[in-house]
Design a protein that fits this description.
175 residues; 78% helix
């Protein structure tokens, strides 16, 4: 009979798959809309989620490409985080939960979340710079500070997991 914890982990795994697929679809949509707008400049008026970068594309294709690239990078990094969450949930064995593999994956998730925050800061700075230069707002100036908080939290959890692995291996040696 499955424990309640095992059932919860299974539900979380399904939700992680949904989030992973959602972010991959978002990244694919951004790539497709950018490709279409590359071939047909008018398509930049209605990019993914209704973004209108037409004036930016007409003004400077390099800054247009940079803005889209930052959006794409954010989506791909978020998908990568969810892939690692799926990998973590698949690696957890409730009988022996503390494994170095899980600790390393959690640490990697923390680093990627920190990278998402840095990329969001760059995107926000680029958007602010474009707004000062053009007077128009292209995208969002949100820095997504919650990713910095999550990165710190996940990193701390990874360190707790590492310590759990050490204690677990010490206990196995004493038996």
């Amino acid at each position: 009979m499955e424990t309640k914890t095992a059932q919860i982990l299974m539900v979380l795994k399904v939700l992680a798959w949904i989030a992973f697929i959602g972010y991959l679809i978002e990244a694919g949509s951004i790539m497709i809309s950018f490709t279409v707008s590359y071939l047909n400049p008018v398509a930049a008026k209605d990019l993914y989620k209704g973004l209108d970068f037409y004036n930016l594309r007409q003004m400077d294709f390099w800054h247009y490409t940079q803005s889209i690239s930052l959006l794409l990078a954010l989506s791909l990094m978020k998908a990568w985080v969810w892939w690692l969450v799926i990998k973590t949930l698949s690696s957890i064995n409730l009988a022996n939960p503390f494994k170095m593999e899980v600790a390393h994956i959690l640490e990697k998730i923390g680093y990627i979340l920190f990278s998402i925050w840095i990329t969001a800061l760059l995107a926000s700075a680029h958007t602010g710079w474009l707004m000062k230069r053009t007077g128009e707002l292209f995208g969002s100036t949100d820095t997504m500070d919650e990713f910095l908080f999550m990165a710190g939290l996940v990193y701390i959890i990874s360190q707790v997991f590492k310590r759990g692995v050490e204690i677990q291996s010490e206990n196995e040696l004493t038996v």
